[in-house]
């Protein structure tokens, strides 16, 4: 498993939020947040590709 370094102040904030949200650890919270953001980006890319394909087929202007 890889480790990343973050500012101590940010870590403290994440620790508080992770605890309030019911996560078992800061690591669990961070992994979940990264997965959510990646999915947003990946989905956006896919939607753009679909839009361009539909435009190319003449379904969209």
Keywords:
61 residues; mainly alpha
Question: In words, what does this structure look like?
Answer:
- This protein has 61 residues and is an all-alpha fold.
- The protein has a domain at 26-61.
- The chain has 2 helices and no strands.
- The longest helix is centred in the C-terminal third of the chain and has 31 residues, at 26-56.
Write the layout of secondary structure elements.
Layout: H1 8-21, H2 26-56
Oligomer: single chain
- Give a short account of the largest sheet: none
Distance between the termini: 47 Å
Number of strands: 0
Question: Mean of the pLDDT scores?
Answer: 91
Summarize the model shown.
The protein has about 60 residues and is an all-alpha fold. Helices cover about 75% and strands about 0% of the residues.
